[in-house]
C-alpha cells in the first residue's frame, strides 16, 4: 500500500503544481475584469458588454479548483462529532474511514451527474449571449472537480485504512507541508 500512496503523492504534487498557478492566473483575471468593468462603467460611462459572462465562466473554474484544493487538504466542511462523544481511537478511526467511504460514494455520484450535465451541454450546443462561448466550458469544471474529488477521496480512504490497519502511522502520510 505504501507504493500506491507514494504514487498518489507524486500525482498529487503534479496536480498542485498545475492547479495553484492556474488559480493565481484566474484570480488575477477576475480581479482585472471586475476593476475594468467598474472603471468603464463609472468613469467612462461605457459599460463593457459581455464582461459578466466571461467572469461567470472563469469564476466556475476558480470555485471548483478551490474546492479541489480544500478536498486535497481535507479542509472542507465536515461534522466530526464522533471525537466529542467517543474517546476510543480505534472507533474514531473506523468512523473516519466510514465517513470517507460515504464521501467517496457521493463523489462518484457527483461524477456521473456532472458527466451527464457536460454531455448534455455539448449536445445542446448552448453558448453565452455576447461572445458565444460554449456553456460546456464552465460545465466541464464540475466534471473535472468531481474526478479530482474522487482521486483525493481514494487517497484519503487508503490513508485511513492504512492508519486503521497499522496504528501509530500518520493519518495522512501523503500530505506534507512540502506539498502545499
Topology of this protein?
Blueprint: H1 2-42, H2 51-72, H3 82-85, H4 89-124, H5 136-165
General description of the model:
This protein has 180 residues and is mainly alpha-helical. The chain has one domain. Helices cover 74% and strands 0% of the residues. It has helices at 2-42, 51-72, 82-85, 89-124, 136-165. Helix 1 packs antiparallel against helix 2, helix 2 runs parallel beside helix 5 (136-165) and helix 4 runs antiparallel to helix 5. The longest helix has 41 residues, at 2-42. It is elongated and about 65 Å long. It starts with a helix and ends in a 15-residue tail after the last helix.
Series of H and E elements = HHHHH
Strand content: under 5%
The count of DSSP E runs of length 2 or more, i.e. the number of strands, is: 0
Note the total helix count: 5
Indicate the structural class: mainly alpha
Q: Can you give the mean pLDDT?
A: 87
Amino acid at each position: 500500500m505504501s507504493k500506491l500512496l507514494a504514487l498518489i503523492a507524486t500525482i498529487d504534487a503534479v496536480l498542485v503544481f498545475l492547479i495553484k498557478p492556474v488559480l493565481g492566473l484566474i484570480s488575477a483575471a477576475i480581479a482585472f475584469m471586475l476593476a475594468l468593468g467598474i472603471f468603464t462603467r463609472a468613469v467612462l460611462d461605457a459599460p463593457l458588454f459581455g464582461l459578466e459572462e466571461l467572469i461567470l465562466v472563469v469564476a466556475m473554474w476558480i470555485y471548483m479548483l478551490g474546492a479541489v484544493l480544500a478536498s486535497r487538504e481535507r479542509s472542507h466542511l465536515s461534522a466530526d462529532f464522533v471525537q466529542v462523544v467517543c474517546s476510543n481511537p480505534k472507533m474514531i478511526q473506523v468512523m473516519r474511514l466510514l465517513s470517507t467511504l460515504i464521501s467517496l460514494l457521493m463523489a462518484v455520484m457527483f461524477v456521473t451527474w456532472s458527466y451527464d450535465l457536460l454531455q448534455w451541454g455539448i449536445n445542446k450546443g448552448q453558448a453565452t449571449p455576447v461572445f458565444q462561448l460554449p456553456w460546456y466550458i464552465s460545465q466541464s469544471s464540475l466534471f473535472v472537480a468531481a474526478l479530482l474529488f474522487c482521486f483525493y477521496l481514494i487517497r484519503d480512504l487508503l490513508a485511513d485504512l492504512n492508519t486503521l490497519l497499522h496504528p501509530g502511522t500518520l493519518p495522512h502520510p501523503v500530505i506534507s507541508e512540502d506539498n502545499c
